[in-house]
């Protein structure tokens, strides 16, 4: 039996999610299905729902989403460690692209595999987040 991760949301993520979920430019992330090859069969998913399910069930996110490590400011890392409740545990900070490698719809999240926690930090475009 696999344990699921607990998903938590930063207040910044909640604010940005509320805004982008109403933005027509984000329709493809929240409403349109994309075709993803999983175990050699093509399946259709809504990007946002699929990614959240992968994070929750600790399933490897397909390469299509280009999940890659990013460096967060030291202050934010310390705050995350405090949130996770363990200042010694390694926290993995990642960014993924909902619409493929060159896409501009991003999710920034932190993972603590020991505590089985995923913390959604930000959602937005490159220009909004960086």
Feature tags:
5-stranded mixed beta sheet, alpha+beta, 130 residues
How is the topology of this model organized?
Layout: E1 6-9, H1 11-20, H2 27-30, E2 33-38, E3 41-46, H3 47-57, E4 68-69, H4 74-84, E5 92-97, E6 106-112, E7 117-124, H5 126-129
Parallel strand pairs: 1-7
Antiparallel strand pairs: 2-3, 4-5, 5-6, 6-7
Notes on the structure:
The strands form 2 sheets. The protein has a 5-stranded mixed sheet with strand order 1-7-6-5-4. A two-stranded antiparallel ribbon has the order 2-3. The mean pLDDT is 88. It is globular, with a radius of gyration of 15 Å. Helices cover 31% and strands 30% of the residues. It starts with 5 loop residues before the first strand and ends with a helix. It has helices at 11-20, 27-30, 47-57, 74-84, 126-129; strands spanning 6-9, 33-38, 41-46, 68-69, 92-97, 106-112, 117-124. It contains 5 helices and 7 strands; from the N terminus they run βααββαβαβββα. A hairpin with an 8-residue loop joins β5 (92-97) and β6 (106-112).
